[in-house]
Amino acid sequence: MTLLTLFYTFAKIGAFSFGGGYAMIPLIQREIVTNHKWLSLSQFIDVIAISQATPGPIAINSATFVGYKIAGFWGSAFATTGVVLPPFMIMFILTRLFLKYRDLSFTQAAFGGIRPAVVALIVAAAVSIFSSSITDFPGAIIAIVVFIATVFTKINPIFLLLLSGIAGIFFYH
User: Does the predicted TM-score (pTM) go above 0.90?
Assistant: First the structure.
């Protein structure tokens, strides 16, 4: 039953999360922290941080981590398959439809409405994890420096994550 619950939960996340990884964060958080209590909010934030520092999408990395934590290898396999299968099927169907109907005005109008909704989901995710992620002055300084570097420079985000880890060791060790 646990394996099916993992599969179903992450299939729901995969099927109903639009806009990419950051837009998925609120739904992932609600499912694995609030509904199932598989992780605490602090652990969830750590998973998001690890997901950013490792290759692969947030949802897949989260599914793999949570699945492994709950039911080992098979939990990881079921959760990861669950989060990947629905978007794969949806994208396959939508790609065929989009290529056929991309020039229609209603298709363009739909994308005009989807884009701002995705931005709102990303902002909601940032707001939901902000208070648990930045809990002190050093954390605020790291966040501000990384934000400024991201917006105003072309520094690679991976390099910024590495520097943030070093700063964390310096400030918190």
Answer: no
